[in-house]
Specification:
It is a single chain. By secondary structure, this protein is of the alpha/beta class. It has an eight-stranded parallel beta barrel, surrounded by seven helices. Helix 2 crosses helix 3. It binds NADP nicotinamide-adenine-dinucleotide phosphate (NAP). NADP nicotinamide-adenine-dinucleotide phosphate (NAP) binds next to strand 10 and helix 10.
């Protein structure tokens, strides 16, 4: 497994990271343990959690993902082998179970969130603590475009960084990152760090896949020039890029069967693009999911590709993508499809 530098931190992380957001709902504690054991064996050292997980986030089991990881650390003693990432929620008006629906990216909330995560994770520090989504109106989670309102109140990134700085000074957080951010947000964080000597973000955790290459507009240049790489989430577009939902199929127990309102990677445009990528993979003797992941892995702005799996077979197939190289013919084919179906799922 290739190792890459996490921003300017000097820390090395594996080019493939282990996603965790199904553990505690779709997956059991035992499933999570088996995934962590196998991933570690395969050279994966970066695990990505969140106070919000598992998804869909619900009061009755919120936090269970971090508890599973914490329990695994306790039983295996593997804490020091892992670069542990977690996230603090942005505003949660739509999630009353997270700080009464009043979470913001301010000191009070960030400190409370971090203490909660540390307890569940049974550790004294988080290696990469990320803001899960911005504390302002902008476009993320599939929303296109931006509508500005002059009167909007939000927590300025400098205030968020000052709160995170307290945790860094206390040794509870080693490095920080953002998620679901825009070019404005990333540059604003970097500017504040430089001008006010605040901690510097090391990574941008955003969606990136064959169905959503919007990171390439704006953020890719920032990632490379500013040394703040992408941690790509949903690299298979919720599993859609495996091809398993094509022709109206809806496999039992799959994410879209269980959670039909997860429509971010569904619809006619997504289906047409997926069918074309799946055909291309098969024409070249590739497994569609592995072609999709190998495409993400070869991007120069990528630090790590966060894979998600609900079965060991999926995890093995996905981590196997590290050994798949894409020929010029396949890469040209991918660009042809992308020209015909540009970013169907932002
Ligand atoms: N920052 C954020 O806002 C954010 C958002 C989303 C995710 N994330 C992070 O990124 C990680 C990965 O995201 P994701 O789960 O959306 O990634 P994904 O790769 O797009 O989807 C993973 C899902 O697809 C299905 N799948 C995976 N491999 C497959 C294969 N080889 N063949 C067929 N189906 C397969 C599985 O679901 P089923 O078996 O249920 O179909 C699996 O849970 C998460 O765990 C989390 O750590 C972060």
């Amino acid at each position: 497994m290739q190792q890459r530098e996490l921003g300017k931190t000097g820390l090395k992380v594996s080019a493939m990271a282990l996603g965790t957001m199904t553990w505690g709902n779709q997956n059991t504690l035992e499933d999570g343990f088996a995934q962590m054991d196998y991933a570690l064996e395969q050279g994966v050292n970066l695990f990505d959690a969140a106070e919000f997980y598992p998804v869909p986030s619900r009061a009755e089991y919120c936090g269970r993902t971090e508890e599973i990881i914490g329990e695994w650390f306790r039983r295996t003693g593997n804490r020091e082998k892992v670069v542990l990432a977690s996230k603090v929620c942005g505003p949660t008006a739509w999630c009353p179970h997270i700080r009464g629906g009043e979470a913001r990216l301010d000191a009070k909330n960030i400190i409370a969130a971090c203490e909660g995560s540390l307890g569940r994770l049974q550790t004294d520090r988080i290696d990469l603590y990320q803001t899960h989504w911005p504390d302002r109106n902008t476009h993320y989670f599939g929303k296109r475009g931006f509508r500005h309102t002059e009167e909007e109140q939000f927590t300025p990134p400098e205030e968020t960084l000052r709160a995170l700085e307290q945790l860094v000074k206390q040794g509870k957080v080693r490095h920080i990152g953002v998620s679901n951010e825009t070019p404005w947000g990333v540059m604003r964080h970097l500017h504040a760090s430089e001008t006010q000597e605040l901690p510097r973000i090391a990574s941008i955790q955003n969606p990136y896949s064959l169905l959503n290459r919007t990171f390439e507009i704006g953020l890719a240049e920032i990632a490379c020039r500013e040394d703040v790489g992408l941690l790509a989430y949903s690299p298979l577009g919720f599993g859609v890029l495996s091809g398993k939902y094509l022709d109206g199929q809806m496999p039992d127990g799959s994410r879209l069967a269980l959670f039909p309102n997860y429509t971010r990677y569904s619809g006619a445009q997504a289906d047409a693009a997926t069918a074309a990528y799946v055909d291309l993979a098969r024409e070249h003797g590739l497994v569609p999911a592995q072609m999709a992941l190998a495409f993400v892995l070869r991007q120069p702005f990528l630090t790590s590709c966060i894979v998600g799996a609900t079965t060991m077979d999926q995890l093995k197939e996905n981590l196997g993508a590290k050994d798949v190289s894409l020929s010029d013919e396949v890469l040209d084919g991918i660009e042809d499809v992308a020209r015909q179906h540009p970013d169907p799922c932002p």
